[in-house]
Amino acid sequence: xxxxxxxxxxxxxxxxxxxxxxxxxxxxxxxxxxxxxxxxxxxxxxxxxxxxxxxxxxxxxxxxxxxxxxxxxxxxxxxxxxxxxxxxxxxxxxxxxxxxxxxxxxxxxxxxxxxxxxxxxxxxxxxxxxxxxxxxxxxxxxxxxxxxxxxxxxxxxxxxxxxxxxxxxxxxxxxxxxxxxxxxxxxxxxxxxxxxxxxxxxxxxxxxxxxxxxxxxxxxxxxxxxxxxxxxxxxxxxxxxxxxxxxxxx
Length: 250
Prior knowledge:
With 250 residues, the chain is of the alpha/beta class. It has eight helices and seven strands. Helix 1 (18-29) runs parallel beside helix 2 and helix 6 packs across helix 7.
């Protein structure tokens, strides 16, 4: 799926691999300048070099998204490097699975607060854009109870609700806000790639729960992100779009 993002400036928080990198690649491929951040400097450097092959401007910076002041600083630096911001993608997750202080802190500090902080920091640039777009990456976990990963499910439910609130609050500023709730996505080095060997029972059970018969690919989430950022989605805001091969149905 291809769109024309020539002249657009896209910032992807958590963009060195997996879903975030696939989204950054889709925007770069279709003409946008992109900025990405991630904690791992080596992976970030490789991702930025790959994105640069599309010929557009690429800005990258190492960042711990749990660090509030650093998030605000990155957004400002990205806007300066790209000449503004038209699209903000809040993708990173702390993957807080354990129902304890550590699990909850990871989810709250990264999934929720990084989304809030990046959105607030980007707001002046998105407003000047005239067609600003925020895309929050949630999860189908946000739609159901979870014994295995209660904090993760809860913070993703919060992101779904916050997306609706953002969509309402920013509509008069002509900034659209939507979320994507992916099902189980597999890619090299990702959670489900690891589970294939570390917890084959969980891996196979999850695979059987997907009516489409396979795990999703990052590019399938990126396609939806590109659509939501395009003019074809010009009257869609405050929504959470499920992309899961029927996993919730199963």
